[in-house]
Every structure is written in structure tokens, then in C-alpha cells.
Amino acid sequence: MSLDFQPELIRRYDVSGPRYTSYPTADRFHSGYGPQQHARALAECSSAAVSLYVHIPFCETLCYYCGCNKIPTRNHARSAPYLDQVEQEMRKVAGLLGRRAAVPQLHWGGGTPTFLDDAETTRLMEATREHFDLQAGGEFSIEIDPRKVGARRVEHLASLGFNRMSVGVQDFDPAVQQAVNRIQSFEETREVIDAARSSGFESVSVDLIYGLPRQNAFNFAATLEKVLDLRPQRIALYSYAHLPARFAPQRRIREEELPTPQAKLVLLGLAIRRLAHAGYVYIGMDHFALPDDELARAQGEGRLHRNFQGYSTQAELDLLAFGVSGISKIGSHYAQNAKTLDAYGAALAAGELPVERGITLDADDLMRREAIQRLMCDFHLDLGALAARHGVDDPQQRFDADLRRLQPLVQAGLLELDDLRLLVTPQGRLLVRVIAMQFDRRLHDASAQLQAPRYSKVI
Ligand SMILES: C[S@@+](CC[C@H](N)C(=O)[O-])C[C@H]1O[C@@H](n2cnc3c(N)ncnc32)[C@H](O)[C@@H]1O
Ligand code: SF4
């Protein structure tokens, strides 16, 4: 997928917007959807195969930029009682499902999954296999913080069945690392990636962030060279989302050290050019991959999907999430677990599912979810065909407001609109979430307009 980097256009449309890992977005979930509703959805779920997510919230140190759901602690005694709870949750969920479902896709995220030691990762994987049928040839991925993981631990993870990893890097420059409280050497990162390759991991992805304090074109170019030297199959290039009102640790970042929006765009342009020159192709929202990577091939063939973990080649499966803050998706329902350890543990101790909020989608939501998902994966969308799949007779009328909202974007060159067929242009691709936002009915509800911005900027 080719990109045409147009800084002026990006500056013009650099608005706050959701990332659409779900539609409706998680801020629309409500407490009227709780344990009972989720239990019913699980009991009614007839999917032969499901995807699993396990959230491990602990981190040994706190990276100041971090917007993830995490608990900083050096006390490793905290993981054992947490694993007891996760196992309790798995048992309960598997019981409600009433079968040992097939699992072609599993992801451990965080926080830092490698906060767990070898015995604990073994224990968690064994518990998972007891309740679910992890399939040979599945995608089993884990997020790795290379600062605490050596070659031997990587081999252990491979022996448990993991075959994909994403490695947190963010930036290799010592001054940037100091400003964000994440000191990580190139050598320890390379050790992990080399070990992943030699122990049979099929794919390694590296996370980078642009827009961090003290980053400039000079030192970010050096970081990119180091990353390219590692030649990961995939690179996630995130825009730093600075929301200090929401994420307290970000208040420790000195705002005067943040690159200006102008300088941030220079970093993005630099990265896009350098990655393209090194042979990486744009997959979609923040993601790049080598052309022979399965994601790149899937995109070429219109088989790409998107879920809470990002892009995937697996057809959209129901997703069961375990652990604090995890979000499950079952058919037309989403359910999110309690976000604090106390609330999560208390619900399980009371014999309940630890679900705190959720939502059931109506027919219009389901159609819009597909529209947004397809736009973000394929960069084109046939509204007529979409409407027909959802039993809508008059797409022109149903999408009237959306089409009107799209007009200025068409004029600005972000997309072409032919009859009811949308095609995102190479210069519109970096702004695909602005296009997706036009289909977000809930975002455009009059009442929603009155609320304060909750989302990060697009770039
Ligand atoms: C849960 S963390 C990664 C796993 C592991 N804890 C680590 O740090 O290596 C997932 C990724 O989210 C990204 N991230 C976290 N906070 C962010 C923010 N405020 N803006 C943009 N990206 C962010 C980082 O690239 C990070 O690697
Ligand atoms: S980036 Fe990773 S290690 Fe750092 S605080 Fe966030 S989750 Fe923890």
C-alpha cells in the first residue's frame, strides 16, 4: 500500500479521534451491561473458534509516556495471586461456554507479560490449555520488554508455543530514554530479537513512538537506522499521545521538551521515507511490514482484519479477554473487565464475572462497525454492497449524513467517492481515522458533541 506524505494536509486534519480498535469505542460502554449480560452472551456463543487475550498489568518500572493499563511494582509476589484470579476467571468463562473451544489466536499483553517468571508463564499457559484447545499453526503472540528478558527466557516462551512477539523499543537515544524513564540498550534488544529468530518465532514486531520529549530529526534518524539494522518483520510507529490529565505519569514529562506539532510531522515524514526506502510497506494505522510478511500479503488479498491488538490475518473471531481491563467481544456484544485489581478480585471472590461495563450493538452499529473495519484494512469500501449485506434497501438515504460529512474530505483529496464507492487516496491513508470518524454515528450525536475531547490527536 503506497503512501503520499502531505504534511499540509495532515496538519489540517490533525484532530482528536478514536483509534477504532472497537466500534462503538470503549468510552460508549455503560454499566447497564454487566456480569449477567456477559454470562448470557457466553452461554449463547456458538462460535467454533475463539481468540484469547490475557492482560498482565504489572511493570517493574514506569515509562512516563505510557498510556496503557499498568501497575508499577517491583514486588514479584503480586503475580501469583493475580494468576489465581485469572485462572478462576478462565474456569468460569469456559464453564459458561460449555466446551473447550478451539483457539487459533492468543495474545498476552500488558503492562508487561514478561513480569511473570518462567514458572508463572508455564503455569498460565497450562491453565489456558486446560480450558481451551490451542491449535497447531495458530498465532500465539506476546508483548516483550527486552530490558528484563534474555535469550533463555525467549527460548522458554517459544517452548510454551509463542510464535510471534512485539518488542517495545520506542527510541534508542539515551537523552530521550532518560526523559521518559526507559533506559534500554540496543544490545539487549538485539539479543531478544536474535533469540526469537533462532528459537522459531515466525514474526517479530518493534514498537516505536514519535513525538517523545527530546526527539529531533537527527536522533530519531539514528534510532530508525538501529531498528532497520534489526530488520523486524513489522514495525508499529505510534504517535505519542500526550494526555497528562488522563495519565498521571505523563505529568513527569517536561512539555517544553516535547517536539512542536511541526517538528513531530518532520519525524513522521522522516520515518515514512526511511521505512519505504528499506522496503517496508504501509499496512494501515501506524503499522508497517516487510512485503513478504503475512500481514502485507493479507492486505494485498483483502484478507486483513483489525482487533484490539491491531492488525491480523485471522478472520474476525469472537474474543475472550482475561485479566484486569480486558475487553471481550462476543457477536454483537462487548464486555470490559474491571480496571483495578481490587474490583477485579472482589467480583471473582463473590463468584461473579469481573465485568464492569459493556454494550450490545444494534443493527446500525453492526453495519458501521464493518464499514470502519473495512476502511481501516482495505482503504476502500462499497457502501452499496455493505448496505445489501446488512439488509438496508436505500444506502443513499441511510448514509446521507455520512456522505455529506465526507464531501469536504473528498474536496481536500483524502478520498474519491464514485457513486457509493469510497477509495482512500495515497495522501488520505495516514488520515484514515478521520474518514472512519465520519461513519461514527455516536460521535456525531448532538449530545456527544457537547462533551470534552477524550481522544488523542490523529498524528
Ligand atoms: C503495553 S505496551 C508494550 C509492552 C511492554 N510493556 C513494553 O513496554 O515493552 C504497548 C505499546 O504501546 C505504546 N504506547 C504506550 N503509551 C503510549 C502513548 N502514550 N502514546 C503512543 N504510544 C504508546 C508503546 O509503543 C508500547 O510499546
Ligand atoms: S510502556 Fe510497557 S513497560 Fe513501560 S510502563 Fe507502559 S506497559 Fe509498562
Describe the structure.
With 459 residues, this protein is α/β, with parallel strands linked by helices. The protein has 2 domains: 1-23 and 361-459, Arc Repressor Mutant, subunit A; 25-319, Alpha-Beta Horseshoe (pyruvate-formate lyase- activating enzyme). Helices cover 39% and strands 21% of the residues. It has helices at residues 7-12, 35-44, 79-97, 118-131, 151-160, 174-179, 186-198, 217-230, 261-277, 294-300, 341-349, 363-378, 383-389, 395-398, 400-412, 432-437, 441-444, 446-449, and strands spanning 49-56, 58-59, 71-72, 102-110, 133-144, 164-170, 203-210, 234-239, 281-284, 287-289, 305-307, 310-312, 318-322, 327-330, 333-337, 355-360, 380-382, 415-418, 421-424. The protein is globular and about 60 Å long. The two termini are 19 Å apart. The model has no long low-confidence stretch (mean pLDDT 94). It binds S-adenosylmethionine and iron/sulfur cluster.
